[in-house]
C-alpha cells in the first residue's frame, strides 16, 4: 500500500518526521531483526484488536511497522490481530511474552479484561503501552490515543449544526448508535456526544453496538425505523464509519430516498465516498500515522529503559498514566480536499472512482 506521509495537521506536536522505511510483521511471526533490548534491538509485540474496521490492517499496522523499522532497525516485531476475541488476545499476549517480548503495545478488545494482560506483563517487568484505547484498572506504562471525548463532541456538534441549518432539529427524532460497550473509547465518544446533543435534540432510540459490528448496527437501525417510522427520523449519530455504513444499509432497505444527516469516525474510504455522494454528513479524521509513530517511539524508549515524552496524564483506574493524546478533526464535504487529500491520506483518484466522478466534480475535488 502506498501512502504519502501524513502532515502533522491540527497542531499535533509529535515525534520527528519519518523517513521512508519498510517492514512487515506477519500474524504470529516476527519481522527481521534480533536483540535483547537496549540500543542493539529487542522484541516488541504489537497486538491489535480487530479487522472489521478497515483502519487497523490498512493503516495502523503498516505505519507502526514502518516507524519501528526506522527507529530500531535491529528490533524484532511480533504482530497479532485478535479479531475481536478477548480470549484470543490474551493467548496472543501470553505467546508474545513467552517468545521474549520486552514491550507490549496493545489495542484491547475489552478494556477491562485486558487488565489481566497488563498484570502478567508487569509481573515479568515488561512495559505495556495502551494503543488507541485504554487498558483499565491495571498498571500500564504509557497511553497513545486521541482526545476521545472531543471526538464524540465533534460528531455531536456537527450533527446539531447540520440539523439546525436544515431546520429539522425540532421536526423529528435522532437515532444514536454507539460503539462497543467493552471498549473504553466507546464510552468516551458517547460521553462527548451527549455533551453536545443533550437538550438540543430528541433521541428516539439509542443503542450500544457489540464488537462495533456494522451488521449489528444495521439491525439496530432497522429496529429504530420500525419503532419510530422513517419519516420521524431526522438524523443519526453513528460512532464510527462502520456503524454508519450499517445504518445506511438499513435506511436504503427501508426505502429512504434521502439519507438524513449521519455522523461517523475514522475517515474510511467508503465513508468519504458516502460523504461525497451525500449519504453521510461527516466523519472524524484521526491522523493515524502520527499516532502509530508516537506508539513506536514510546515502545523504543521503554525498550531502552527511557521515559517516553507525554503531554498529559490519564487515569485508568489504577493510577495516572503518562499519555500522548492527539487532536481529531471533523471532516465534511467542505474540507476533504484540505485535510485528507492535502495530507496524502487518500488521493483524489482513490476517492473519485467512476461511481463518484460526477459527485467529486460537483464538490470541487
Automatic annotation (TrEMBL):
Its chief place of residence is other
Provide one Gene Ontology cellular component: outer membrane-bounded periplasmic space
What InterPro entries does UniProt report for this protein, alphabetically?
Bact_Solute-Bind_Prot2 (IPR050555), Peripla_BP_I (IPR028082), SBP_2_dom (IPR025997)
Q: Which GO terms describe its molecular function?
A: carbohydrate binding
Does the record's keyword annotation contain Signal? yes
Which SUPFAM superfamilies does this one have?
Periplasmic binding protein-like I
Q: Which residues form the Periplasmic binding protein domain?
A: 44-307
Keywords, sorted A to Z: Signal
Localisation per UniProt entry: Cell envelope
Name by which UniProt lists this protein: Solute-binding protein
Q: Please tell me the species this chain comes from.
A: Acrocarpospora macrocephala
Amino acid at each position: 500500500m502506498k501512502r504519502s506521509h501524513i502532515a502533522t495537521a491540527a497542531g499535533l506536536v509529535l515525534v520527528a518526521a519519518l523517513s521512508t522505511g519498510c517492514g512487515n510483521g506477519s500474524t504470529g511471526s516476527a519481522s527481521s531483526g534480533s536483540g535483547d533490548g537496549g540500543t542493539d534491538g529487542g522484541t516488541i509485540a504489537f497486538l491489535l484488536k480487530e479487522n472489521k474496521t478497515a483502519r487497523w490492517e490498512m493503516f495502523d499496522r503498516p505505519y507502526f511497522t514502518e516507524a519501528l523499522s526506522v527507529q530500531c532497525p535491529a528490533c524484532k516485531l511480533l504482530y497479532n490481530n485478535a479479531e475481536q476475541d478477548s480470549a484470543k488476545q490474551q493467548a496472543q499476549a501470553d505467546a508474545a511474552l513467552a517468545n521474549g517480548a520486552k514491550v507490549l503495545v496493545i489495542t484491547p478488545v475489552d478494556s477491562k479484561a485486558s487488565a489481566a494482560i497488563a498484570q502478567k506483563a508487569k509481573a515479568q517487568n515488561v512495559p505495556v503501552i495502551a494503543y488507541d484505547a485504554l487498558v483499565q484498572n491495571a498498571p500500564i506504562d504509557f497511553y497513545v490515543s486521541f482526545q476521545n471525548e472531543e471526538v464524540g463532541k465533534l460528531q455531536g456538534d456537527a450533527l446539531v449544526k447540520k440539523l439546525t441549518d436544515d431546520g429539522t432539529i425540532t421536526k423529528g427524532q435522532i437515532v444514536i448508535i454507539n460503539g462497543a460497550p467493552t471498549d473504553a473509547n466507546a464510552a468516551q465518544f458517547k460521553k462527548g456526544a451527549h455533551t453536545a446533543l443533550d437538550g438540543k435534540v430528541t433521541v428516539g432510540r439509542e443503542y450500544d453496538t457489540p464488537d462495533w459490528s456494522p451488521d449489528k448496527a444495521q439491525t439496530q437501525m432497522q429496529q429504530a425505523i420500525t419503532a419510530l417510522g422513517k419519516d420521524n427520523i431526522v438524523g443519526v449519530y453513528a460512532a464510527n464509519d462502520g456503524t454508519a455504513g450499517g445504518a445506511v444499509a438499513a435506511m436504503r432497505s427501508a426505502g429512504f430516498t434521502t439519507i438524513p444527516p449521519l455522523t461517523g469516525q475514522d475517515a474510511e474510504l467508503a465513508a468519504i465516498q458516502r460523504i461525497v455522494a451525500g449519504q453521510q454528513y461527516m466523519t472524524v479524521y484521526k491522523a493515524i500515522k502520527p499516532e502509530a509513530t508516537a506508539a513506536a517511539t514510546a515502545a523504543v524508549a521503554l525498550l531502552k529503559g527511557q521515559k517516553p515524552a507525554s503531554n498529559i496524564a490519564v487515569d485508568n483506574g489504577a493510577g495516572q498514566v503518562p499519555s500522548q493524546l492527539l487532536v481529531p478533526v471533523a471532516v465534511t464535504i467542505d474540507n476533504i480536499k484540505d485535510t485528507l487529500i492535502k495530507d496524502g491520506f487518500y488521493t483524489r483518484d482513490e476517492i473519485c472512482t467512476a461511481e463518484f466522478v460526477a459527485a467529486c466534480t460537483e464538490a470541487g475535488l
